[in-house]
Amino acid sequence: MQFDAQWLLLALAPVFLACIGWEAWHLSRTRPRPASNAPLDSARYAWPDTLCNAALALMHQGADKLAWLVAVPVYAYVYRHCRLVSWQPGLVAWFALFIAQDLLYYVFHRASHRVRWLWAAHVVHHSSERLNLSTAFRQSLMYPVAGMWLFWIPLAMLGFTPEQIVAIVLVNLAFQFFVHTQAVGKLGWLGYVFNTPSMHRVHHARNARYIDRNYAGVLAVWDRLFGSYVEEDAHDAPDYGIVKPLASCNPLRATFHEWLAMARDFARMPDWRSRLAALFAPPDWCERHDALGLASVTAPATPAGTRYGVPENNTEGEFGSRNR
Ligand SMILES: [Zn+2]
Ligand SMILES: [Zn+2]
User: Fold this and answer.
1) How remote is the CA of residue 145 from the centroid of ligand 1, in Å?
2) Residue 307 phi/psi, 5° resolution?
């Protein structure tokens, strides 16, 4: 009997649940329960947050199964008619597939923070103010609508079969489960090669120096290569979540709040250029647009050499996606 890769994440569910059980037990032993008036301990499990994460995981799994029904025939068509390379079955082909997909994941993930259409789906993953292994389950059923599956089409052009593509996408996602924890410190030299919990804690933080950094899936090299790497600093503990807190553990609200906000912005924009920008510009474009409009009323002109009234030397991080 052949194993269908589409079931990989469900097949691994017992492993994931065992790890969550271990982490919850470990935290209960090593971190004292905070007093009721103490600040939130972002590592600890809370039932409303964990149940929301579990519901989001199930919704995402259902949407993903439907999405593969559309995506797999597209990959098959591209593989049959447009592929540039043919691989001998074996380890070399799988290694090439792993590297290519991980690079495409980096591109997808970075775009998900810089293009609002994609951010509307990805924000779900970032909208909890806790970070533990259950946060990995926090995914959006809207990824297929946002177009995540389109990012893997180049793999079919590179000569990989739809089955291989589905398998490697899910292996990448399965690996990332293990980086969502505060129970593991820095991992030394491994951090030069692989995405680690420390690296991914930075990615989930909304501190000004951490926001929109460390996009890695499995390999850490892409962030170092493309200038998006930031080291976790013991003196600047990550503050998890989005800048405008969701303040809800309702999975439907988590899934659709940014889509609704984007639709409202689209509707209120005065012309088509602005409407398209409300969908496809960086997530904070509308706020910059509004601020610029106000500034033009109260100030004579925007200073030369700036875009959206923001000094040019601002990094994308300082006005990053989680300003939404
Ligand atoms: Zn992200
Ligand atoms: Zn994450």
Assistant:
1) 17
2) -115, 135
Ligand 2 centroid from CA 262, angstroms: 23
Pairing of strands 310-311, 306-307: antiparallel
Rounded to the nearest whole angstrom, what is the distance from the C-alpha of residue 204 to the centroid of ligand 2? 6
Mean pLDDT calculated for residue range 131-150: 97
Question: 63 and 143 in contact (C-beta within 8 Å)?
Answer: yes
Q: Which one of the ligands is nearest to 136 CA?
A: 2
- Categorize the per-residue pLDDT at 301 as very low, low, confident or very high, splitting at 50, 70 and 90: very low
Confidence (pTM): 0.89
pLDDT at 291 over 50: yes
Using one digit for the tens of pLDDT, what is the confidence trace for 243-270?
Answer: 999 999 999 999 999 999 999 999 999 9
Please report where in the chains the tokens 């691989």 appear, as a residue: 87
Residue 171's pLDDT is 96
Nearest alpha carbon to residue 128 among 61, 68, 205? 205
Ligand nearest to the CA of 131: 2
CB atoms within 10 A of CB 74: 15
C-alpha dist (Å) from residue 78 to 19, 75, 81, 106, 165: 38, 5, 5, 22, 12
200 alpha carbon to ligand 2 midpoint, in Å?
Answer: 6
* Torsion 204-206-212-214 (CA) sign: negative
| Ligand 2 center from residue 308 Cα (angstroms) | 29
